[in-house]
Design goal:
The structure is a homotrimer.
Chain A: H1 2-64, E1 68-72, E2 79-81, E3 88-89, E4 94-99, E5 103-104, E6 109-111, E7 116-126, E8 132-138, E9 141-148, E10 155-165, E11 170-175, E12 181-183, E13 190-198
Antiparallel strand pairs in A: 1-4, 1-13, 2-12, 3-11, 5-6, 6-11, 7-10, 7-13, 8-9, 8-11
Chain lengths: 199, 199, 199
Amino acid sequence: MMVLQMVLLLCNIYAELKKLKNMDERIQKLEETLAKVLSENEALKSIVQDSQNKLKSVRKENEAKKVAFSAGLLESGTGHTGPINTPKTLVYKKVFSNIGGAYDPNTGVFTAPVKGAYYLRFYGHSHGGPNMAVSLLKNGKTQCSVFAWKPTSNGNASNGVVLTLETGDQISTQLWQNTWVFDDPASYTSFGGFLIFPL
Amino acid sequence: MMVLQMVLLLCNIYAELKKLKNMDERIQKLEETLAKVLSENEALKSIVQDSQNKLKSVRKENEAKKVAFSAGLLESGTGHTGPINTPKTLVYKKVFSNIGGAYDPNTGVFTAPVKGAYYLRFYGHSHGGPNMAVSLLKNGKTQCSVFAWKPTSNGNASNGVVLTLETGDQISTQLWQNTWVFDDPASYTSFGGFLIFPL
Amino acid sequence: MMVLQMVLLLCNIYAELKKLKNMDERIQKLEETLAKVLSENEALKSIVQDSQNKLKSVRKENEAKKVAFSAGLLESGTGHTGPINTPKTLVYKKVFSNIGGAYDPNTGVFTAPVKGAYYLRFYGHSHGGPNMAVSLLKNGKTQCSVFAWKPTSNGNASNGVVLTLETGDQISTQLWQNTWVFDDPASYTSFGGFLIFPL
């Protein structure tokens, strides 16, 4: 009787053990698949990291682009600036916009906050009589100018330029000696510019 | 005899069972590794989600940037506009470009489609005689102007400005009362602008 | 005695085998989780691939934007250009910037390197006497112009335009017949432009 029970028990055990081989195969499959997943994930993590860095740089560049300003000569009132017998940096007081804060309304100087291509323009208006002449200067050196010789009525002239500026380069406009410009609340005489793209 | 067979059988079974410990260890290893993979993937999914959102916003911003227009005063023909005894919004009919459709050639008004920094410029040309004066207006308020007092030959003057506009802000140019401008197919008198960057 | 030992042994074996059910469950759990990981990773890889492509296109577009130039008429010296009895393409020799190399200082022609919205401007300055007239041309066709009829002192006039250009479109400025412009090292007469955004 006891022996018979043992035989039955052994048969059960034997049946159970057959599962072992199948489980071993399943574990091996899992191990292989998981190794593949780990390896693929390393590649994926590296791609994601690379994309993150590139995206960060794109976003940084897009933010860095936000440099633009524009100002009229007189904040209020009406009047001539010049003529005097020395060249004079024009200090535009009526700030229309100054995104990035690179234009200083106390000095009339725009300082490039990042290296890039900038568009810069200015406009001069004067009453008839004396000459009207203004140059745009980069670090004190004339880039482009306007000139109206003894206009019979108003002098009206504007110029603009695309310049590659290094960080810290300074742009200003200068009234020539013995010339004048005029401004009033309608804002004729103006200076402005913006970063087109960083470099 | 039977007992001997059973002993051998038991020995086999016993040998098989030794694999159980090894399999248990492999399963445990798999469980640990997979838990790590799951946790890493959650982090990865979160990074990818974040990158996707940032990229979406960069792409949206880049698309939103596509706002630019430019128009000449007369679509065809030759003639003066003004002088009349009230200020008059100039309606530029010869559309050179109007990407984003923010300029309305029926009203002469540019309506900012997104908040941002915009560059806006205009150019006025007139024959000699009456004054020539044009202002650029934001929501009806003068920003900057040109003025040529009784020019002996042509009046020629342009101005431009960088403005921060809110969505819906309206930009137009206005001819002053008792002043005039001239245009013909060569297109002298013009208005234009573009979004420099959204804010 | 031996039979009793064997029964005990079998009972131990049987107890061990009970673990098999637990291991089978753990393997099944692993298989299910790993299948989920594999499926999620496929989705993730596809998202990452898509983001990569979009990012690549954003970066390419941002790079493609880097087109800007500006030039003054005379590289050195002082003098009039014109008047002559045929229209003449102005060749600006004093290159302030030429990012992307799309402006040719030998011909005065800017060739759009990519399809996009471009801002283009020019400025003409002349001495009194003959007319001063310059047009901006796209593929030889006048877009906008300046004109100063027999100015008593200086002719000063600038114009600008936003144009949608196809790759290869050519922009130049043309002095009208029997008119002149003037330039010297202060650079009054100028031409410039930049890509606002690709299309």
